[in-house]
Amino acid sequence: MKLQLLPSSFDEHGAASARQHLSCFVIDDCVAIDAGSLALAASAAQKKQIRDVVLTHAHLDHIAGLPLFIDDLFATLDAPVSVHAVPEVVEALERNVFNWEIYPRFSELENANGAVMRYQPFQIGEQFSVKHLRLKSIAVNHKVPSVGFIVLDDKTAFALSGDTAKTDEFWEILNRERNLSALLVECAFPDELGELAEVSHHLTPRTLKRELEKFDRKECLIYVVNIKPMYRDEVVRQIEELKIENLQILEVGRVYEW
Ligand SMILES: [Zn+2]
To answer: Could you identify which of 145, 159, 216, 222 might form a hypothetical disulfide with 247, taking C-beta atoms 3.0 to 4.6 angstroms apart as the criterion?
Structure first.
């Protein structure tokens, strides 16, 4: 399985920056989990192939690129883009984004070939198939209805926490998964902003370490994602000081293969 976190900003030379402002993970160039930078940073080949977008939750940094992605492809789509999300997220998108005021309601529009976007709702805890992948959704602990996922193909699996604070269910379910090659876990704020992390339901290096003590797959590769860009250097330094085995920071733009 191939996985790439798409870039979302540029450094002063115009190259993709290591800072992650938005969330969009592309699997095997054809399925997106979250759509933060989908319209901005997907390659031409990815734009051609991605017709399934799976959402963890409705926060802006996870959905910002979705309206633009459908807009860019509007005239050329020969099949609708499927948006897989829990009903609360579908409702939030329809109410707050695709409401004719912020953007057109693409779920009601057609091009010459038919519908351009359709919702495929799933319930929290449900398993479902997307292309060649199986996804198990798991409730996590964030400010709004949010899920993490275990993503499986025929050979391997990885897990993604999405945005979350302290949680038990996610770890219990991961510990039962036999074939887990990698875990992508969030760590948004540095330790000194622990209070902000608590009210916004995110992790800091200290609380991440505590969460990882519940994870008993010590051979699994652990990648930290979703570090708030303004605190990246500080969070990375604090994580390195913890010397957690098998843990590294996921590199923006790099293609990982498990
Ligand atoms: Zn969030």
So the answer is: 222
b/e 20-37 (16+ beta carbons within 10 angstroms → b): bbbbbbbbbbbbbbbbbb
Alpha-carbon distance 39 to 53, whole Å?
12
CB 250 within 8 A of CB 223: yes
Sequence-separated (6 or more) residues with CB below 8 Å from residue 69: 35, 38, 39, 42, 47, 50, 53, 81
Alpha-carbon torsion angle 42, 44, 45, 49, nearest 10? 70
- Cα–ligand 1 centroid distance for 188 (angstroms): 10
- Ion ligand 1: residues, Cβ under 5 Å: 59, 163
pLDDT per residue over 154-210, tens digit each?
999 999 999 999 999 999 999 999 889 999 999 999 999 999 999 999 999 999 999
Ligand 1 centroid vs 58 CA: distance in angstroms? 7
Quick: pLDDT tens for 88-108: 999 999 999 999 999 999 999
Closest CA to 235 of 220, 253, 247, 246: 247
Burial of 216 (0-12, 13-18, 19+ CB in 10 A): exposed
Residue 243 CA to ligand 1 centre (angstroms): 27
Beta strands 180-186 and 221-225 are parallel
Q: Using the mean position of ligand 1's atoms as its centre, give its distance from the Cα of residue 62 in Å.
A: 7
Residue 137 phi, psi dihedral angles, 5° rounding? -90, 145
- Measured in Å, residue 163 CA sits from the centre of ligand 1 at 5
Beta bridge partners of 159: 150, 183
- CA separation for the pair 238, 232 (Å, rounded): 10
